[in-house]
Amino acid sequence: MDAAIVAAVASLVVALLTAGFARRESRRAQEAEAKLAATQAASNESMAKLNNQMRRDAVAEENRRTDKKELDRQAEPLLMSALDVGYRINNIRNRFFLGTYTGSAVPAARRETAVLSTLYRFASYWAVVEILYAKVSILRFENEETTKQVAEILKKIGSKFATDSLGHTLMVWREEQRAIAELMMDTDGSVIGYAKFVSEYHERFELYFTSSESAIRRGGLSDNQRLRDLQRLYARLAELLDDQRRLEKQWSKLMPEVADGKLSG
Description:
mainly alpha
């Protein structure tokens, strides 16, 4: 009987030990599974974040390429427009353009052409800029390194026209610049030619150009500080756009330090 009791107790002890061991192993297995699940979840979360970041980077890179591509597409018309305005400003400031072509001794048709062609060059530039802005994200355009410098110069030119810190002569506010740019758009989205501008001037453009037209007709702009500042900005814009420096000879001569005769070359 004692042997049976001992055997029974031994069996019970073994059973209890076995059960305890099984419970510990079960807890360990559960803990391991929980850790594995947590690790997997963390890994999935990290992978999701990485994928999201890669998608954002890809979109940002595509946006950069798109904006740069659009700037490259518009670079030539913007460059030529900047040079056109720069040349006319330099002619007004340093080559007696207004004194030569708006005097009473000059035929009326020639006087009118001198005035309206000057206004047309301003208007064409604003239209080209507006076309560029319509095709790119302004926020990206102003912050991406590949386009930031051009965006800054465009803003400075717009501000230089709009500021009243240089007086009211040739002051054109931003809203007026944009309104003129809108009117300069042809039905196909291109910039209208000079002949159409002249034919529509009194009906559509005169309202926005009244003050500037009067200033040009009066003349006396050779020492105008706004024009001097604009000439430098247009030369700088042309320099940035001419990355192959094919037209360096043209835009370098527009730098006021050179054009005003203070430096040789």
